[in-house]
Amino acid sequence: MEDKIMDIHRSPFRMVLAITGGGTEAIGELLRHGGGSDTLLEAIIPYCNESLHDLIGKEPDRYASAETAKNMAMSAYKRALFLDTGFHKDALSLIGIGVTCKLVKQGPEREGRQHEVYFASQSYDRSTVSGISLKMKGCREEQERIVANYILERIASLCNPKKYAGHNIRENNTGEKTLILENEAEADHVVSELLLKTLESINSGKNTTPVKASLGPSSGKPGIIISGSFNPCHKNHIEMAMIASEKYGMPVDFEISLANVDKPPIDYISLEERLESLRFCMQEMKKGSAGNIYLSNSPLFADKAVLFPGSVFLIGTDTLNRLFNIDYYRKSEDMQSLIEHFKSHNTRFLVFRRNDADICSGIDIPEICEIVPCDCYADDGTSSTKIRNERLCKFR
Hints:
By secondary structure, the chain is α/β, with parallel strands linked by helices.
């Protein structure tokens, strides 16, 4: 292990490490043999729930999960970009690492409780996530040793993949632990730069400069846009798109923002999954009704209006309520200035009613919004959140 640690320190990579639930001995090991300052920018232990919420910007569905580890890694990468401001400043050499564990605890445990570890990394053009299940039901100290070694093995494979990447499967499937998850995704230069600009703008605390990237042929003309996280895309998204396409006589484009108002930015693994879901659903649309897919760094419609001037955005009543909510305004903005901003970019909204979201009584709907009649679109309650929750219940 000492040889691996020294190989880590000799690599060009610098990192921020965030660990919760166990495995913190890995931090001491990285610093024990000298040379730690060549690698470690910062180590974070968000141990209480509130600390973890603050790190990733939300309360996770499950604390020990691949999703939480990925969110921690993204937050750690954002922190690394903020800290690496000196002579060595280079986004390509930075890594954010997130680890979340569920280990043995004192006292009786509920029957069937699994002891799991999830490790995720985020860098300029790559996201990874892996997970192990601990076979042994021994003491906490022994599990801590296993987890710390696992973390260091994963870091070594990131820093020197040719030497250590092949070791992971052999070392993870032992009498102590079993590999239960292994996934990664890479991004091209365009998407990597978009994420970098997104994170740098968050770190600066300033209003971001809107940027978009087209994933297909673009006409560059005003059109119809349906924006969302598409986590996952579902039949109601497609029904809304087909209604709008028929109404306006043109294809509908789809847009995903890597940045979110109150969530961590999207990692490349999650983005790949959402794009796969989106493309699958687009195949179900009538010929000529599905347009292009765009990525952006703009979670606010005020910025989307700049990116897509002259366009009609398809939104639900829940989004309409947020659109004119002061919590989602840009700095020095109010409702009237926001409406004038939309008008100056010839932006309009086609609003679809949602079963779970009535239009707030305090909102005076401006003329730039058109409400789709109930006889044209009837929401059946399907939502991305509901689909994710159903999947989570099955997992549990």
